[in-house]
Structure formats: structure tokens, C-alpha cells
Amino acid sequence: MKPFGSIHALLMATEILHTVFSTDLPLSNPRRGKVRDMYSLPPDADGPRVLMVATDRVSAFDVVMPTPIPGKGCLLTAISAGWFDWLRTQRIIEDHVLSLNVPSIPGTPVSDLAALEGRIMCCRAVKIIPIECVARGYLAGSGWSEYKRDQTVCGIPLPAGLRQGDRLPKPIFTPATKAESGHDENISFKQACQAIGEPLASRLRDVTLRLYASANAHAAKKGVILADTKFEFGFALDADGNPTDRLLLADEVLTPDSSRYWPADTWNPGQEQVSYDKQFLREYLLQLEKSGQWDRTPPGPELPAEVVEGTLARYREAAQRLFSTEAL
Ligand SMILES: Nc1ncnc2c1ncn2[C@@H]1O[C@H](COP(=O)(O)OP(=O)(O)OP(=O)(O)O)[C@@H](O)[C@H]1O
Ligand SMILES: [Mg+2]
After folding, report:
1. β-strand partners of 95
2. 3-state SS assignment for residue 253
3. pTM of the model
4. Fewest beta carbons less than 10 Å away: which of 77, 98, 256, 295?
């Protein structure tokens, strides 16, 4: 399949022309995730399709903030598309992406379609497998919390003496439930087998670890550590909307929303790492929590301009380091 074209051109499209907080397109079956709006598109010869629109919404602690991060959806789309493109060359698994071109949507003004440029993906519709497939190569986040308590991560025993941010002896698969609402919960591999069957769980574990190893090696060449990441998989639907046995890599891949990225040159185990992900926003929110101004329940607080700009700068730097040599 042909690549999606110049990632640089896509990144240039992030020169912020439009801020999109939410969409209301005249397409069937609208669904709103925390960050992305989804719609059904008319099927093609191979089956049902979906339109995914990456908005400028940002979520932290599973709560969507009321303040958009202008252009974030374009950066996310560029990073995800860049990785899908690259992963195809690795031939590990087929993915769900069909096109990045804005489809014609009858009844939608040209100005509304222009706002979608650079932030949409037309994808094969899948039945998502209800397990978040996480690979971790380093000790951070919930993995670090569990390790401090039990010397395990998702029940996997690890050597003593590891520090926060340390590289693990080898990358591990740490699945989580895909909660319909509320927080995703880490589960053991055995629990994943109970949920979706051992053969599929083993297959997802192997594919996840191969994807992680490839991506981490590629990121390393750009001076970036991929500390951990989450993939979602699904079975393509047939014309009647029933799942087939065609397993696809779905959702977004390897974005700062689904991954922990650290600049390699500042990596320093034994503390919280400098990162390109939402840690900057989380730290601001933790301060609010400490001073009793927010308690992690919706609605989220309005974000000040410096937090919006700081967050965007980190996403932009991740995109630039991973996929572009020129300043954005
Ligand atoms: N090809 C696809 N077909 C159908 N659904 C998909 C496909 N790819 C991704 N999805 C689903 O679309 C949604 C994307 O929206 P978003 O990531 O904003 O949701 P979210 O709030 O993070 O929810 P979730 O926790 O379920 O990921 C996710 O629920 C994801 O599982
Ligand atoms: Mg999601």
C-alpha cells in the first residue's frame, strides 16, 4: 500500500488555522471519545469504514479539560500517521488506516471541511478487542507505583533495586482493561487470557512486543526513548457489521497521548523524567489538587495560557524530533 505522503507537509498543516474542540458532522453513528470524534462512513467494497477526527481536546486523569490545545489534533494525526507509515515497512501486522484525505461529506460547508484538514483518518471499521495492549521498556507511571509496593509490574516479578525511570531487563506486556467508563485497570496476562482467550491474548502480546521493539529502536535513532506505549487491535467488520478474523492494528499509534516519550539526552533514572507527554499538564493539575482547587472529577479546570502553550510545545517537539529535521 502506498505511504501517506510527506509527513512534513502534514506537520506544516499544523500551523494553526483552526481550533476544533468538537465536531457535529452530518454522518451516521456519531460517537465522542475523550479526544476523538468518530463517525461511520459509507462502506467501500471491502466493508464498513469509520472517520476519526482528532480534536484539540486534552484529557488528564481520564477527565477532558474545558480548554482546547489549538492544533494538538493535527500534531497527533501527523505523529500517528508517520508511525503507521513506518510500521508498515516492518510488516508486523496490517493496520486500519485507509486515507488521510478529507472525504466529501454532502451538506458540510467547505469551511467546516477545511477545519478537518490534517486531523482526520478514514479507517476500516473494526470491532475493538476490549484489552489495552501496553508494552513497557522502562519503569514509570503505574508500573513504578506497583514496583515500589510489590516489586512487580502487572504481577510480573522484577529484580530488586530498580529505580524510577530505569530500563527493564527486557520489555514486558502489561495489559489493561478497556473500561467503558472510568479508569482503565492493569490486569495480569492470565486475566487477559480469561477475558479474550489464551490464543488471542498470546498473539496480541507477541505483536505488541514486536511493535514496541521496532518503534523503540527507531525512536532511539532520533534521540528519543519510548518508555512505554499502548496499542489497540480489532477485527475488521464484514458488510453486515459482523467481525471477521482479519486482525488489524487500530486506533492511534505511538502518539504522546498513548505513549511515554523521553528525550534520551536528559534520561536520568532515580526521578521523574522530562517527557514529551502529558506529564507537564498532569503536574499542573497535581498542584491544583494539593491546594484543594480540583479533585480529579469532571469538570476539569480551565487551563492557563502557559499550560496550553507548554503542552503544545511538548507535542510539537515530539513530532519534530521523530519525523522532521526542520523547525516547525
Ligand atoms: N478502526 C476503528 N473502528 C472502530 N473503533 C475504533 C477504531 N479505531 C479506534 N477505535 C475506537 O475509537 C475511539 C477513539 O476515541 P478516543 O481515543 O478519543 O476514545 P477514548 O475516550 O480514549 O476512549 P477509549 O478509552 O475507549 O480509548 C476509541 O474508543 C477506540 O477504541
Ligand atoms: Mg483512546
Report:
1. 249
2. coil
3. 0.93
4. 295
Using a 6 Å cutoff on CB, does residue 128 contact ligand 1?
yes
DSSP per position, 61-109: TTEE-SS--TTHHHHHHHHHHHHHHHHHHHTS--B-EEE-SPPP-TT--
Pocket test for ligand 1, best of 31, 39, 64, 128 (most atoms within 8 A of CB): 128
Q: Which ligand is nearest to the CA of 29?
A: 1
Indicate the number of domains in the chain. 2
Q: Verify that 13 and 120 share a domain, yes or no.
A: yes
Instruction: State whether 107 and 18 are in the same domain.
Output: yes
Tens-digit pLDDT string for the chain (328 aa): 445 555 555 555 445 568 999 999 999 999 999 999 999 999 999 999 999 999 999 999 999 999 999 999 999 999 999 999 999 999 999 999 999 999 888 888 888 898 999 999 999 999 999 999 999 999 999 999 999 999 999 999 999 999 999 999 999 999 999 877 667 889 999 999 999 999 999 999 999 999 999 999 999 999 999 999 999 999 999 999 999 999 999 999 999 999 999 999 999 999 999 998 888 999 999 999 999 999 999 999 999 999 999 999 999 999 999 987 544 4
Q: Domain residues for 254? A: 128-283
123 Cβ inside 6 Å of ligand 1: yes
Residue whose CA is at the smallest distance from ligand 1 atom 12: 251
One domain, residues 95 and 169: no
The CATH number for 277's domain is 3.30.470.20
CA of 33 to the centre of ligand 2 (A): 7
Together in a domain, 103 and 75:
yes
